[in-house]
TrEMBL record:
Similarity comment text for this entry: Belongs to the MobA family.
Pfam family, one: NTP_transf_3
One of the record's GO cellular component terms: cytoplasm
Gene this protein is translated from: mobA
Binding positions (GTP): 9-11, 22, 50, 75, 104
Catalytic reactions on record: Mo-molybdopterin + GTP + H(+) = Mo-molybdopterin guanine dinucleotide + diphosphate
Biological source species: Haloplanus salinus
The protein's name in its UniProt record: Probable molybdenum cofactor guanylyltransferase
Domain of life: Archaea
Keyword field: Cytoplasm, GTP-binding, Magnesium, Metal-binding, Molybdenum cofactor biosynthesis, Nucleotide-binding, Nucleotidyltransferase, Transferase
InterPro entries assigned: MobA-like_NTP_Trfase, Molybde_CF_guanTrfase, Nucleotide-diphossugar_trans
UniProt-listed Enzyme Commission number(s): 2.7.7.77
Domain MobA-like NTP transferase: 6-163
Main location per the UniProt record: cytoplasm
The organism's taxonomic lineage, starting at the top: Archaea, Methanobacteriati, Methanobacteriota, Stenosarchaea group, Halobacteria
Length: 207
């Protein structure tokens, strides 16, 4: 059974990006989701991709021959938001803990992800708070507990993605820890074509 899984959220519509699905859009020579998964393979032994059924073929092609086992958790209903996607992805996790990450975080720092797994041990979650907000789509969760908390929040009509946290016994990874164990751009996400141009330039420069 995998001990450390990554759940990659990719079920959004990329409306700020344009007509293309940003998950598989080219980012400095590789589909963005491939960049995210390649960065995580040193610290996870399985990947679950949450997406809509129609996205699956292109994402599977993008992830062809990555270094870990990849499986898919398709949305039963599309467009129910990232919290629903998170629940669907986490329900498909076989091990105890999973790092949840959005498909648009191509600078994700594997060393810091390993640190989040270590911090989550014995708790329901380790959630970074580098500034004011919790980075809920860049956090490690006890998969079953977070899936249940998301489902409960959704059933109450709650849309805020922080809401499920308050059902969990979780560790906050604060700004000092982020500084000591991570890199600031690990949380950066790419939404627009301009974001892609900027990220591609920096990735090509090796930053
Ligand atoms: N399953 C699922 N995932 C979603 C949904 N909305 C967003 N996500 C995912 O949540 C993460 C963060 O969402 P956004 O950055 O807003 O991405 P997006 O919704 O595709 O892009 P925009 O349409 O520009 O907001 C991304 O990884 C998305 O794929 C949804 O309705 N269902
Ligand atoms: Mg969105």
């Amino acid at each position: 059974m995998p001990e450390r899984t990554a759940v990659v959220l990719a079920g959004g519509r990329s409306t700020r990006f344009g007509d293309e699905d940003k998950a598989v859009a080219d980012l400095a020579g590789r589909p963005m989701i491939r960049r995210v998964v390649d960065r995580l393979t040193p610290v996870v032994d399985a990947v679950v991709v949450n997406c809509r059924a129609a996205q699956r073929g292109a994402i599977a092609t993008a992830l062809d021959d990555v270094a870990v086992t990849v499986s898919f958790a398709e949305d039963d209903y599309p467009d129910e938001g990232p919290m629903a996607g998170m629940a669907t992805g986490l329900r498909a996790v076989e091990g105890e803990y999973a790092f949840v990450v959005a498909c648009d975080m191509p600078f994700v720092d594997s060393g810091f992800v390993g640190y989040l797994f270590d911090r989550a041990a014995g708790h329901d979650a380790a959630v970074p708070r580098p500034e004011q907000w919790f980075e809920t789509t860049h956090a490690v969760y006890r998969a079953a507990a977070m899936a249940e908390a998301c489902e409960a929040a959704l059933a109450e009509g709650e849309e805020r993605i922080v809401a499920p946290l308050f059902d969990l016994e979780f560790v906050v990874v604060d700004a000092d820890e982020v500084r000591d164990h991570g890199t600031p751009h690990t949380f950066e996400n790419c939404n627009t074509p301009e974001d892609f141009v900027d990220a591609a330039r920096r990735l090509e420069e090796g930053s």
